């Protein structure tokens, strides 16, 4: 009887701590979002960048005519074709690029060391960062779609089932990007070198994953490399939302492969979660 009572008593502090961890995480989300929008470089290079790129692509290449999946079939404008890739890129920028650089900077300037000396749980810290990415990513996509529709006249889907597909691709993509961003923050040796380490990785992925170049025109070896990483699947999922079904024949296996999109993104989500747990430290081990 005594042993049972002791077990129960031991579990009570842990159970009582869970609401506090969640409450601290919610509080961190508000703080992280405010901090994000007070940083001009983060707002420009992660929040507004896809909107700017959509304007550039639409203005520069609209005179070349519509992009068609096959001769004799209806096509879409250049802006409409590039919109899905830029939506996916926005998720990558909000999660991977933003968090990897931001957390590396917090390690370098002593912010994480100070937080490590407080009762703040790493789980609450993660909730704050992931919540920030969800809020800013949602606002970013909403702005991008409004600009696409209002400014450039790009037609958006009207079918509820298509928007449901958008929702799960968005949630998987943004969560995976956020966790990978936390994991990759361990790579830079300092906050000063973070941009030099992270930006080339993000930029190369965008070029080989069908964001800035039409994916079906890339050589097979480049498509195969891109298929290893999540951005290609995020972009493919968004193309299945914003492009007509006739464009599925331009994909590698002539279909949207929605099942594979879900499996690959779930796989990378687990990888990001494990790596985040293994690599995250309030203070770097090397000092």
Automatic annotation (TrEMBL):
The keyword Transferase does not apply. Residues 41-286 form the ABC transmembrane type-2 domain. It is found in: Membrane. The chain crosses the membrane at residues 42-61, 81-104, 133-156, 162-184, 196-217, 258-280. One of its GO terms (molecular function) is ABC-type transporter activity. It is a multi-pass membrane protein. GO terms for biological process: response to antibiotic. Keywords: Antibiotic resistance, Membrane, Transmembrane, Transmembrane helix. One of its GO terms (cellular component) is ATP-binding cassette (ABC) transporter complex. Its main location: membrane. This is ABC transporter permease. It comes from Orlajensenia flava. The lineage of its organism: Bacteria, Bacillati, Actinomycetota, Actinomycetes, Micrococcales.
């Amino acid at each position: 009887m005594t042993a049972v009572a002791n077990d129960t008593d031991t579990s009570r502090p842990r159970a009582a701590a869970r609401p506090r961890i969640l409450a601290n995480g919610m509080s961190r989300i508000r703080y992280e979002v405010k901090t994000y929008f007070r940083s001009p470089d983060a707002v420009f290079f992660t929040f507004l960048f896809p909107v700017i790129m959509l304007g550039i692509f639409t203005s520069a290449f609209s005179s070349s005519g519509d992009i068609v999946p096959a001769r004799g079939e209806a096509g879409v404008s250049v802006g409409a074709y590039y919109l899905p890739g830029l939506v996916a890129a926005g998720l990558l920028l909000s999660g991977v690029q933003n968090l990897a650089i931001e957390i590396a900077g917090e390690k370098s300037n002593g912010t994480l060391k100070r937080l490590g000396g407080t009762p703040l749980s790493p789980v609450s810290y993660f909730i704050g960062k992931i919540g920030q990415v969800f809020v800013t990513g949602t606002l970013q996509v909403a702005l991008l779609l409004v600009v696409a529709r209002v400014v450039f006249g790009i037609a958006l889907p009207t079918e509820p089932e298509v928007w449901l597909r958008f929702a799960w691709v968005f949630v998987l993509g943004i969560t995976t990007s956020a966790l990978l961003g936390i994991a990759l923050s361990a790579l830079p040796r300092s906050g000063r070198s973070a941009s030099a380490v992270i930006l080339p990785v993000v930029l190369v992925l965008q070029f080989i994953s069908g964001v800035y170049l039409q994916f079906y025109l890339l050589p097979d070896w480049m498509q195969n490399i891109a298929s290893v990483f999540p951005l290609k699947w995020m972009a493919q999922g968004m193309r299945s939302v914003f492009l007509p079904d006739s464009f599925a024949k331009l994909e590698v296996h002539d279909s949207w492969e929605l099942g594979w999109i879900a499996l690959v993104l779930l796989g990378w989500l687990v990888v990001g979660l494990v790596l985040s747990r293994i690599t995250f430290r309030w203070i770097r081990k090397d000092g």
